[in-house]
């Protein structure tokens, strides 16, 4: 199906067939096949989260082909987006760089938005971003130490909600993180296919000495 630039400027999530066709990369079939109702529902949960948060600024750690990014922007089509990834190979038959494909698609679909992606390793490199993001999505290294590192690194940039993907794998990192940040967040656990934890700031960012973002009009 031909897609015109700016087409998804609606706050609706597409039906299953259209989502497969327009959002998924055609060569992205290994190691996971995303063309299933279960994965579709997983990405609809991401969409629903963004519908609730209504973010102006989104930061994602772990972009890959940008499927979560698309879910968030379906819900918040005017939001700016920054994605970070160290460009692990896609494992499927696509020999390009998934992050760059994602960036191209996002810029095509949302020509008026600020869309940026950066190649960097969160465990080695310094961050090229500043300020607060209303929605921070953490979905990169799922090892205990790697996930804990990313939670600690990106929590100070979170002005509202941090969504931690693959909670089924990273639950112990989230628990350790929360032991240190007990009074700063309430936690919601969503039981989707891979599970998500939502860490919602309980104190306004001003109380942390950070500058809040301007609320949506
Ligand atoms: C599960 S995928 C992200 C999927 C994406 N959020 C989505 O919903 O489609 C994880 C990504 O994290 C990246 N990654 C893993 N460890 C990283 C690190 N230390 N720094 C930056 N990116 C990393 C990998 O290259 C991979 O593309």
**Proportion of residues in extended strands:** 15-25%
Q: What Rg do the Cα atoms give?
A: 16 Å
CATH superfamily, by name, is Vaccinia Virus protein VP39
Assembly level: single chain
Distance between the termini: 35 Å
Summed over residues and divided by their number, the pLDDT gives a mean of 88
- Total E-strand runs: 7
Into how many domains do the coordinates divide?
1
CATH topology: Rossmann fold
Range of helix content: 25-40%
What small-molecule ligands were found? S-adenosylmethionine
Describe the structure.
By secondary structure, the chain is α/β, with parallel strands linked by helices. The chain has a single domain, classed as 3-Layer(aba) Sandwich (Rossmann fold), CATH 3.40.50.150. It is built from six helices and seven strands; from the N terminus they run H-H-E-H-E-H-E-E-H-E-H-E-E. A seven-stranded mixed beta sheet has the order 3-2-1-4-5-7-6, with helices on both faces. Helix 2 crosses helix 3 (67-75). It is globular and about 45 Å long. The N and C termini lie far apart (35 Å). The structure holds S-adenosylmethionine (SAM). S-adenosylmethionine is lined by residues 62-65, 67-68, 84-88, 121-123, 139-141.
């Amino acid at each position: 199906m031909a897609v015109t630039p700016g087409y998804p400027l609606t706050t609706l999530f597409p039906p299953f067939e259209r989502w497969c066709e327009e959002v998924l990369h055609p060569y992205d079939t290994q190691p996971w096949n995303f063309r299933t109702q279960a994965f579709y529902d997983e990405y609809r949960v991401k969409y629903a989260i963004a519908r609730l948060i209504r973010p102006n600024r989104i930061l994602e750690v772990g972009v890959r082909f940008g499927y979560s990014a698309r879910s968030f922007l379906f819900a918040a089509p005017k939001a700016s987006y920054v994605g970070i990834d160290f460009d692990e190979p896609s494992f499927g038959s696509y020999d390009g760089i998934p992050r760059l494909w994602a960036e191209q698609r996002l810029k095509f679909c949302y020509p008026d938005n600020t869309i940026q992606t950066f190649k960097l390793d969160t465990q080695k490199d310094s961050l090229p971003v500043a300020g607060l993001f209303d929605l921070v999505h953490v979905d990169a290294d799922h090892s205990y130490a790697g996930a804990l590192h990313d939670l600690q690194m990106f929590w100070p940039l979170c002005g509202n909600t941090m969504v931690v993907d693959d909670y089924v794998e990273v639950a112990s990192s989230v628990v350790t993180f929360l032991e240190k940040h007990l009074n700063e967040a309430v936690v919601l656990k969503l039981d989707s296919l891979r599970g998500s934890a939502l860490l919602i700031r309980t104190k306004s960012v001003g109380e942390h000495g950070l500058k809040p973002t301007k609320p949506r009009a």
